[in-house]
């Protein structure tokens, strides 16, 4: 990241899906120094408290987009007031795909309910916009069905998050003689979307470490 790089900042545990804009002012001693961010909706200055967990994205000079997670570490007053953030290592930077949500291959437990029918299976992949799951024998599910999903998300810190969301079957397909059902999530809250984004981001980090 070069000095002057524009940063898009998202609080990881906020109740609203806020986004802020800031600028990289200085890099020193394992810290990033940014100017006070501006809320992209209200255009007002935002105060970030120490310990706040953030997801930051930016575009480099080659127009490649990256994201990383960091934490607010304090403030510094110089020519302009600045906020200190932990600087990510190379292994902590994730290249962002040019699509709305990054899809990661992962096998996690999922329970489905459509009408009175209930099924248990595992995912093929997941994103913050939807997922694919293995259609086991006996599943009576077709395109256009509305379903409820109960997801078990194993997080990087050892916690397990449980998520109940609604979705719609967009299509089914065969891959290597296995039928796969594809789901688009519906009516996610900001917190649900942030949890899914956090999970897919952690999956990318895990794959990068292998």
List the helices and strands and how they pair.
Blueprint: E1 6-11, E2 20-28, E3 31-35, E4 38-39, E5 53-59, E6 65-77, E7 81-86, E8 94-95, E9 104-105, E10 109-114, E11 117-126, E12 130-134, E13 146-154, E14 160-175, E15 178-186, H1 190-209
Antiparallel strand pairs: 1-2, 1-5, 2-3, 2-4, 3-7, 5-6, 6-7, 6-8, 9-11, 10-11, 10-13, 11-12, 12-15, 13-14, 14-15
How many independent structural domains? Answer: 2
CATH architecture of the largest domain: Beta Barrel
Which percent range describes the beta-strand content? Answer: over 45%
Low-confidence regions: none
Q: What helical percentage do the residues reach? A: under 10%
What would the CATH topology of the largest domain be? Answer: Thrombin, subunit H
Organism: Jeotgalibacillus haloalkalitolerans
InterPro entries: PilZ_domain, T3SS_YcgR_PilZN
Pfam family, one: PilZ
Keywords: Cell projection, Cilium, Flagellum
Descriptive report:
- The protein is mainly β.
- The chain folds into two domains: 6-95, Pnp Oxidase, Chain A; 104-209, Thrombin, subunit H, CATH 2.40.10.220.
- It has one helix at 190-209, and strands at 6-11, 20-28, 31-35, 38-39, 53-59, 65-77, 81-86, 94-95, 104-105, 109-114, 117-126, 130-134, 146-154, 160-175, 178-186.
- The strands form two sheets. The chain has a six-stranded antiparallel β-barrel. A six-stranded antiparallel barrel has the order 10-11-12-15-14-13.
- It is elongated and about 65 Å long.
- Residues 2-88 form the Type III secretion system flagellar brake protein YcgR PilZN domain.
- Residues 97-202 form the PilZ domain.
